[in-house]
Amino acid sequence: MSIKKTPPRRVLINSLPKSGTHLLARVVDILGYKEYFSHLGYVRGSPRFFNYREVKTALGIDLRSQPPALSSQRDEASRFPEGSTDQIGIGSLTQFYVESAKVEQWLKLLPDYRYILGHIPWTPVLPPILKSLNYKQIFIIRDPRAVVTSLLSFILDTKGMPEPHFLEEDFRAMTLEQRLSFLLDGGFAAKAGVEIKGFTETYRAMLAWQNDPNCLFVRFEDLIGSRGGGNDQKQEIVIQKITKHLDIPLNRKNAMQEVYNPSSRTFRMGKIDSWKQSFDGLDLQRLTDYCQLICREAGY
Known about the structure:
The protein is α/β, with parallel strands linked by helices. The chain contains 13 helices and 11 strands. It has a single domain, classed as Rossmann fold (3-Layer(aba) Sandwich), CATH 3.40.50. The longest helix has 18 residues. About 5% of the residues have low confidence. InterPro entries: P-loop_NTPase, Sulfotransferase_dom.
């Protein structure tokens, strides 16, 4: 494969967690970009990814040793009035609001040809910042039933991620049925000291990126290819859309064979419909009934 370099760009790979973030990152890697925090140029102390835990750590907020009541108060103090034009919510199941100027400052730190992963719900504040910094955004979505299934395991074991999930302690005190209900319905996570949104609200906030004209919106099921239970023709079409979005002329030989990577640091049964084998009858019915409406809205 030969890649012709074009004017420098940086990439925000955005997603709902467990929607194929690292599958998409693999494609962007193949196209010549490198992940920000694991390569030369990473600025120590800046977020490694744009997620709930990382931005709090970067701002010097460590809640691990604080009692839940105090944690909750500090989180609530960070929540700005809804509709504010000066803050960006970072995170999926719960958001931590950061001044847009600080997010812009962090984005400026990335060297050329780097990408950063993020879990950022739709906001009108972010696109102008990305455009001014010559960033491209790609968002990947996945069947909500598969996302919930994967989250149930990931929260308990983040595999190769640098830190445990902020909900791990709460989850360990629950049964599988309680974990599923908590993810779907939301509620207060006592050990983490945060309020978790219901999954429908969470999913819709991410799905809204499909209406942003400057964001390339792709589906996990189209990108996974035949090795993950998908379709190679659809995979090739999506890869071509990505190269066009990044202004990269690509002469590829085996690019598609390189995409599906079970050694990825958070890989877990990354196949279409594998979620159906993860539950008994009652829990499976609960999940499918709950997700029926958002599946329709998202085209699943």
